[in-house]
Amino acid sequence: MASCAADESAHQSQLTDQILDLDTADKKSEYLAAILRDDQMVRSEDDGAIILTHGQDSPEYQEYITTQKEMDKRNLDKVEAYLSVHGYPSRELGSEANRAPWLVIHHAQGYAARERNFPLLYQTYLDGQLDEGALAFYLGRMHHMKYGKMLRMDGAFTAENQIDTLIELLSLPQFAQ
User: Fold this and answer.
1) Distance, CA of 25 to CA of 44 (rounded, Å)
2) Rounded distance, CA 18 to CA 22, Å?
3) How many whole angstroms separate alpha carbon 51 and alpha carbon 86?
4) What's this model's pTM, rounded to 2 decimal places?
5) What DSSP letter does each residue of 66-85 carry, written as one string?
6) What's the helix, strand, coil split of the chain in %, to 5?
7) C-alpha distances in angstroms, 126 versus 6, 85, 95, 147, 163?
8) How far is Cα 119 from Cα 111, in angstroms, rounded to an integer?
9) Mind listing the pLDDT tens digit for each residue in 20-60?
10) 3-state secondary structure of 172
11) Is-contact 47 73, C-beta < 8 A?
């Protein structure tokens, strides 16, 4: 147990040092773009094709899922460390850098990471640095995880209506603009 705790502490220290070394916009942008590439790389293979070819209980599919979960954990650690030091990346850092945090958090295993990071993502949306479609998609996944179904809204609605409805249904904190 103590060895695992020491390893985790050393890992966090190393990660913090990496984040602190990101002292230019180019370094920040490349760091986040690399995380996004890693995130998408483990999703590039069609999981439906693996299931059709090998089956859902196959070692091939289980390896695919395990690889994805491990990458998601590493990426979440990196993104949360980045956010704690530098905050959410502005659009000026480029599209990949700006999208990386919300996508990584969106892909994180479990509900807690999404809920924990919601205040920052919501403030980033309010500041105009996160697309409303991205936040609506993120909240839609949270709703599905919490209630086992996607939100169905009747009639015409905007992404802003969807965001407000989901925040209320999920009992998430709102902030004054």
Assistant:
1) 28
2) 7
3) 40
4) 0.86
5) HHHHHHHHHHHHHHHHHHHH
6) 75, 0, 25
7) 39, 20, 18, 26, 11
8) 14
9) 999 999 999 999 999 999 999 988 667 778 888 898 899 98
10) coil
11) no
- Token pair, residue 64, equals 């695919």
Q: Which two tokens stand for residue 94?
A: 């480029």
Distances (CA, A) of 167 to 77, 118, 135: 25, 10, 10
3-state secondary structure 90-105: CHHHCHHHHHHHHHHH
pLDDT tens digits for range 84-115: 999 999 999 999 999 999 999 999 999 999 99
Q: Which two tokens stand for residue 173?
A: 């904190």
Residue/partner pairs of 25-28 with CB below 8 Å, 24 or more apart = 25/92, 25/93, 28/82, 28/86, 28/89, 28/93, 28/97
Q: Which residue in this structure is represented by tokens 């640095």? A: 129
Tens digit of each residue's pLDDT (9 = 90 or more) over 133-153: 999 999 999 999 999 999 998
Pair of tokens at residue 52: 């059709």
